[in-house]
Structure prediction request, 637 residues.
Amino acid sequence: MEEKKQGIPKDIKQVSEVVWEIPTSYKQGMQVPARIYATNKLMQQMDAGVFDQITNVACLPGIVKYAMCMPDAHWGYGSPVGGVAAFDPEKGGVISPGIIGYDINCGMRSIVTNLTLEDVRPKIKELIDALFKTVPVGVGAKGVVKVNKQQFKQVMEDGSKWCVDNGYGWEEDLERTESYGRLDWADSSKVSEKAISRGINQIGTLGSGNHYLEIQYVKEEEIFDKKIAEKFGIFPDQILIMVHCGSRGMGHQVATDYLQIFDKAMKKYNIVIKDRELSCAPFNSDEGQDYYRAMACSANMAFANRQVIMHRIREGFSQVFKKSPEELGMHLIYDTAHNVAKIEEHKIEGKKKKLIVHRKGATRAFPPGNSELSPIFKEIGQICVLGGSMQTGSALLLGIKEAEETFYTTAHGSGRTMSRTRARNEIRGERLLKEMETQGIYVKSVSMSGLAEEAGSAYKDFGDVLDSIIKAKLSRPLAILRPLGNLKG
Amino acid sequence: MYRFLKHTADVLFEVEATSLNKLFEDAGKAVMATMAELKTVKPRIKKTVNLTSDKVEDLLYNFLSELVYLKDSEYLLFSEFKVNIETIEVKKINGEYNHEYDLMSELKGEKIDAKKHKLGVDVKAITMHMFTVEKRGKKWFAKVLLDV
Prediction:
């Protein structure tokens, strides 16, 4: 199955215009049906691997309701990227790194400024070049925050709070970050020495691949809820900044370590899986709990990573525009995780249940009134940050109560549709750079091949993904953000 | 010999070699070639990696994972690989044999330098998805998916 195969399973049932169901009869061992949220057009483009992988997830012990796929889903390893699955710990429900991803708490951050397109367009090159110096990117880049092992353990346990306490951010940043930028069940004693040595020098580094820092603007006609936009200081022709990255080597090592631990532990718990990448352990087991605590450490490292990057962005803007970040109004809108598992309370058959909800390349989108939201989001619902491709656009979305079925989850990006190998063969990085410049987008990357792999044409149509989100009522749009400059690893 | 295959989001490669040692050397090079153009990495620093396992799959998985680890912890990329694997047969009580694989390797490369090296994409992890190591006829084959 090395090449991408297309083909929707024959026995799939179309539940509505944008909801598709694969019944349990599709594959032996399926505990629940699988559901895919996508328009017909996106379904036709979906990798065959998505159907195979999501139905493997549906076979795992203790899964409830459905194994689900967001509209931007694509073939991954273990679970597809865009996968959502919740397990009931009381019924042997498991925790699986394969439905979280190696890049634990890979996520998005969106920041406003009071600058306009007119202020920034003439300075975009200078700005991106300045940010290239303040934010380390690419393979082997070292962060500017120097910590010893003891301090790094504090970063793993305190996340964004550690950053704010140490001068890398503002107090208000915390209430504008998912879980206040700190998963409080983190226990650094559950993280290996290897993971620590991979991560200790990487606080404040962007990484590579699809990770990026983007300067964006918003058009008047693409602000869909003016009242909420105003509340968060979003106005027409405004400049915003988006960051996409995760927990770097530390999180990758934690996932690697625990996949091996689970691989061995499954015998003890009599768990049989369809793919070794779906190795898991009961949530209520020593192994499951150890991973949950180590995963939280990685998530906190990722929150800290994005927090320090934002601090450096504020410094970079300050240098270029000769004003303080406060004067430039550089407030965080929200920071969302899209690779994580958490205990959340949801209704199952009318009863409230505590479930371990896994999201891999999928974003939590809590509706208004949710008790976990910080006061500024309580009335309006959670803001979600959806990162599109560097050539098309991104979006800010709002959580809605209609998304109960997906445990209040929406998409995370555009979703790849072309392989990296094909993109590299078909697209020349240098030519793409020029093409984007004529479109008014200035890009800087340490890797030309890496740049080609991230071309807009390697992704699904951003409009189609947004269309599916709206029709499936996974969330509602707040604003669309268009690219002006991009910094890549 | 290694070649990259198509995969939507990650990097998939296949290795074909005339010996197990060569299979490991080429798989190591494929991981490195994902992160940097190999010819730009000079063999200035020597590093030894020794591992033992009772399964050849686990041995390759651990060997490649070690390379990813050294990239982040010591900022090392390698362009020259010398691998020597000894297979030891251990007789079990029931008369059957268990294999034990002892790997000794010498890797040469240098510290990552964005100015010198033509960098590619960072490898986050070696995945077990579609991971295979097998001997067909006189040749060894492996397939590895990297998370990038």
Observations:
- Chain B touches chain A through 41 residues (CB under 8 Å).
